[in-house]
Amino acid sequence: MKNIRNFCIIAHIDHGKSTLADRLLDATGSVTDREKQDQLLDSMDLERERGITIKSHAIQMDYTFEGENYVLNLIDTPGHVDFSYEVSRSIAACEGALLVVDAAQSIQAQTISNLYLALENDLEIIPVLNKVDLPSANPEEVTDDIVALLGCRAEDVIPASAKTGIGIAEILEAIIKRVPAPKGDPSEPLRALVFDSVYNPFRGVETYFRVMDGEIRKGQEIKFVATGKTYGADEVGTLKLKQVPKTVISTGDVGYLITGIKDAREVKVGDTITDAAKPTQKAISGFEDVKPMVFAGIYPVDTEEFEELRASMEKLQLNDASLVFAPESSAALGFGFRCGFLGMLHMEIIQERLEREFNMTVITTVPNVSYHAYSRKNPDSIIIVNNPSDLPDPSSLDRVEEPYIKSSIITKSDYVGNVMSLCIEKRGQITNQTYLTQDRVELNFDMPLAEIVFDFYDRLKTVSRGYASFDYSPIGLRVSKLVRVDILLNGQMVDALSALVHSDNAHHIGKKMCEKLKELIPRQQFDIPIQAAIGAKVISRETIKALRKDVTAKCYGGDISRKRKLLEKQKKGKKRMRQVGNVEIPQQAFMAVLKLND
User: pTM of the entire structure?
Assistant: First the structure.
């Protein structure tokens, strides 16, 4: 056990975690030349295309240092704020963390946020200054920033370049010398933490775990504490580049388990695995339940594919534990699911994965957040509003509360004014402003979550020319003056396009939505009025003109009454058409609301 080291890599997005993981695998000889490729641990097509890590990946490396053999378990983590749940799970299974900071970009919001997560779990932090070979790198200045943040010595910061391989041997030495060996009692009953799971269509659910006490053997009867179900351990092993079956996994080690579970809901991430015959008395305090930030409806394009969509979502949820969903129905779209996501990127990735991995064509409704409404009759009972159509009648409402977040924005001092005006426009209140260095400022705002759901991140990058980094955490609910803006097409309300907005912005948003829908909905044989309304009051209207056949073309000359008769006949037909006509809404129209400022 004293020769095992469990560590993860944490950093802001694009600071070089995946490349560093590649170099560590090369240096320890864990991959052959034939298997080598860039971002080796990013196995999903989507990860490689976008250049981001979505899933945390575990891999075991063997390394000989000063004549002793060591086993290093690396858990690579994502950097984007939307996948912070993955990071928290990886951290819970480790004793140490490599904190990677880009020498050209210095410390950013996600660096600090992930660092706090690691410190809460008492991890040994090894600071690594990456990309020191870049012409734009400022190693001395950034080292000072790291020293100020961590309170360590400048000698503790390891200068490295994951691209060229500088400093890799020093990083491996630091992992062995500084990261403590796992603690645990091999004689105790089995206690293992489930930190990830994936669905394999041939073998069922593969569970990834870290053994805290005891050991797990092939063929042993094991029990999942949260569900209380027992299974036989058909196969256990360690995670090299491919799975390596073993007969036993001991205390402190990381491995995988296959029990032939076919139902995705029976494995909960954060659960404790124990021996069925001699169960442990103290379950591991797993991770807290994930709190979704953004809600949206996902509906199958073909209503008959509802059950297929359910099966796909369950398999996807197993692979991505931060996805939350429940069935719901809509008058416009039929049966579907109300899904909770950690952010807009997370939502985009889920939609893409449903289409790629499960061949599902889906419609996603306008994303929104979860509100609490209170009625006048019963002011103590909470009505949870996940969908704008759930909001009770305004006349019976006492108040509505919306979720607020504490946001931390780190930017260059040149862009402070632009960032402030954007946050104030989004109803933010500044709580703190700290100069980290002469030209780097941290701004803290309290903001409504609903305002950052849509285009906030993109606009923040625009106003700061890509320099601002953003991170947030929820701080509870506050009373707000909200109204529901409904969209009516041809007099019919489209519940999937309803939105809850602050009353000050309602007219502006209603007008923008009508204009946007006018561009996107194709013309029909009849006039289509598009209206935005608050309750019974219409606040904006646009009309999509009908496609008209020139019925008077055959009248050349003659009395005007002949032409009028034909036009009247056409008008009656158009009117009848409008009463029975159906308007098809394209998928872009549902997402258009997100890009109102373009």
Answer: 0.68
